[in-house]
Every structure is written in C-alpha cells, then in structure tokens.
Amino acid sequence: METLTLALGDRGYPIHIGEHALRQLPAELARLEARGAVAVCTDANVARIHGESVLESVRSAGVTPVLCVMPAGEEAKQLARIEEFCGMFLEAGLDRSSVVVALGGGVPGDVAGFAAASFMRGIRFVQIPTTIVAQVDSSVGGKTGVNHALGKNTIGAFHQPSAVIIDLTFLKTLPDRELRAGLAEVIKHGVIADAALFEYLECHVEPILAKDLDALMLPVRRSCEIKAAVVAEDEKEHGLRAILNYGHTFGHGIEAVTRYGVFLHGEAVALGMEAAASLARQLGLLDEEAAARQRACLESYGLPVRWPELPVDETLAAMKHDKKARAGTLKFIVADRIGHVVHRTDIPEEQARAALLAVR
Ligand code: NAD
Ligand code: GLY
Asked: Looking at residue 321, what is its pLDDT?
C-alpha cells in the first residue's frame, strides 16, 4: 500500500492506495476522533456487494456505523438526496464533530460529500471510492454536488475529504463496461500530464482489462498524484485545474444531447478526447502520430472514438450552454503532445464544429 498527501495546508489529507487499503479505515477514524455514530453513505448496488465489509471495518474502530443507502445511478443524484441523507444523520444523532463515510462510485461520493458539506454547515468525511472513475478522479479534490434538471453538477460545494481510502480490491466486482469507461479518465491523465503513464497504458492493456490489481496500481496511483498536484495548486479551478477537463467540453455536449442515456461518462470523454485531438490537429498543435496514438489507446480499451449519429449542431449548442463555455468564444484544453496540454480560449465555433464532424 502507498500513501500520498494532497497538500492543502491544514486541510490536506492522506490518500491511501492499495489492494487492502480498507484496513486503514479504523486508524483514520481514530485519527479523526470519530465518536458515536458514523454514517456510511452508499448506493444500493455497493451496499449489497461491499456494505458489510465496510460496516465491519467501522465497527472495529469502536464506533457505530449507520448505513445510509440511496438508489444507484445518475438519476438519483438529486437535491432530494441531500435532505434524505441529512434526515438520516439527524435520526442517527450525528453532530458537528461526526464523520461521514462516502462509499461507492462518483454518484454516492458526490452526493455524500455534498451532504457532509451541508450538514451542520459542514462536517468531515472520508471517501472510499469503488469505481475507477471515483478512484482516479472524483474522490480526490473536493468537488461535491448534485444535478439539477437544467444542468449536471450545477448545485454543490468544494468540500475536501479528511482522507481517501482507495482499495483496489473493490474493482474486482465492477462491471467491465464501467471499468473501461473509467479508464478513459486515466488515459486522459496520461495525455494531459504524463507520457510515461500513457506508454504504460499502451503496454498493459491485457492485465488492466483483466483487473490484475498489480497492473492497476500504477495507473491509479499516478492518476491520484497528478490530480492531487493540480488540486494543490488550483483548488477552486481558477486556472490550472481546468486541464482535468480535457475532452470534457465535447464530452459534456455529447452527454447532454443523448440525455445521459447512450454513453457512460468515460465513453463520452473518449469521444471528446478524439474531437479535442482533431481540434489540436486543425490548430497545427498536435502531430498525426500523437493523435493516432491517443486514438489507438482509447480503442484498445474498448472505448468509442467514432459516433456516426453524432448530431453536430445540437452538440455544439449544448457545449455553448455548458458552464465551462464563455460568451462569444469556446474554451478548450488541447494537447500539443502526449503528456502536455495548453488552454485555448479563442476557438471559433466553426473549428469546434469541424472537430465534431471528424468524430462522426
Ligand atoms: P456511479 O457511482 O453511478 O457507479 C457506476 C455503477 O457502478 C453504479 O451502478 C454503481 O452502483 C456501480 N458500482 C460502483 N462500485 C461498484 C463495485 N465495486 N462493484 C460493482 N458495482 C459497482 O458512477 P461513476 O462512474 O463512479 O461516477 C460518475 C459520477 O461521478 C458522475 O455523477 C460524475 O459527475 C461524478 N464525477 C465527479 C467528479 C468530481 O470531481 N467530484 C469527477 C468525475 C466524475
Ligand atoms: N473532474 C475534474 C475536477 O475534479 O476538477
């Protein structure tokens, strides 16, 4: 097991990563001086498969776990859940000194994190991510929140966890499609910041897709290191943190026009990365060899890089509505080589349209 630190001064926290990292939970609860009841918030799938082992771990810290379960899936990521979770916290007697455990993928992680941010104006929480998306992205960095009918992740707060415990063993039960979709975010980390990680992913497709935990350790750890370094420098996304949105402006547009019903988030990000590479080619920033490597890597993990039905105009319109777009111009993160990206705030709509056409 390895432990990284997200360096945010007195709000910094450890990120434990490894095959049996869950064993760290009792020690973390002791360090946080958790007393009385600890709320373990998760979704129905994760509760069924992994709930008992986490409850047992909480019990072994000498505190009483209270299981708070929400329905699984993105549709359940609503403000109503915050009221429900806070009601469960009150009934269980949680107070300002209590600790919440957010167990599961990005959905329960974001919801439980926002409930912890809101309850008694903010209590501490520990992230225990169980999907690749959550282990390499959402559990680190403190973005919490829920969706509104008019926009995804539009209600939320920055609220850093007190610890992140990434037990790779959870991945053994993750459906293959979820695994592959999550790996899009790992490939993204390679493209934006680490050519060696990208090369590792190119060379270890088979063991990674077979969920060989030794093979998964490096990509998960490097992803957390990259994300932790970015967040330490730019916690509230005033600048640098936007590089983590590589492929996401196009991807969010694709998710919005499909009403989140066709592609998993990582699959939409893969299409978005392909569009971003096409844009970078048009701008003369990226050579064809690097664009082809990104495409081949995404494809080798079973991720989509073409979508013949892509509705270009509707996707462009959705992208302009995205909260990351600014009036008049479109803002993108584009790669100029594998392992490095640049911000462009001046992309004319026609160039973005051509990039989308290249994906179709
Ligand atoms: P998810 O939480 O819905 O999990 C996907 C599915 O896998 C669910 O059905 C879940 O029940 C199931 N599952 C989870 N762990 C499992 C396991 N170990 N074994 C078997 N099944 C398991 O989705 P996700 O892909 O983890 O996360 C997507 C969400 O994360 C989105 O809402 C997105 O907005 C959010 N997100 C947030 C951030 C952030 O910085 N806060 C970053 C990226 C994504
Ligand atoms: N997932 C992008 C971020 O955390 O900033």
From this structure: 79
Catalytic choice (221, 252, 281, 293): 252
Q: In the prediction, which pLDDT does 325 show?
A: 53
Of ligand 2's listed atoms, the one at least distance from the Cα of 140 is 4
DSSP string across 166-226: EEGGGGGGS-HHHHHHHHHHHHHHHHHH-HHHHHHHHH-HHHHHTT-HHHHHHHHHHHHHH
What is the layout of strands, in order, in the sheet containing 37-43?
2-6, 13-18, 163-167, 124-129, 99-104, 37-43, 64-70
143 is annotated as an active-site residue: yes
To 10 degrees, what angle do helices 265-282 and 349-359 make?
120
Helical pair 213-233 and 195-203, crossing angle rounded to 10 deg: 160
Which atom of ligand 2 is found nearest the CA of 141? Answer: 4
Closest CA to ligand 2's atom 3 = 244
- Percent over 90 (pLDDT), the chain: 96
Indicate whether 249 pLDDT > 60.
yes
From the CA of 237, how far away is ligand 2's center (Å)?
9
Atom of ligand 2 nearest to the CA of 143: 4
The CA-based diameter of the chain, rounded to the nearest angstrom, is 61
φ, ψ (nearest 5 deg) of residue 356: -70, -40
How far apart are the CA of 135 and the centre of ligand 1, in A? 9
Is 245 among the residues known to form the active site? yes
The reply to whether 159 belongs to the active site is no
Active site (annotated) includes residue 202: no
Of the candidates 118, 169, 112, 170, the residue with the CA atom closest to the CA atom of residue 139: 112
| Nearest of 135, 77, 145, 81 to residue 105 by alpha carbon | 135
Residue 100, pLDDT score: 98
* Greater model confidence, 325 or 250: 250
What average pLDDT does the segment 154-172 reach?
A: 98
In the reported structure, the alpha carbon of residue 42 is separated from the centroid of ligand 1 by a whole-number distance in angstroms of 11
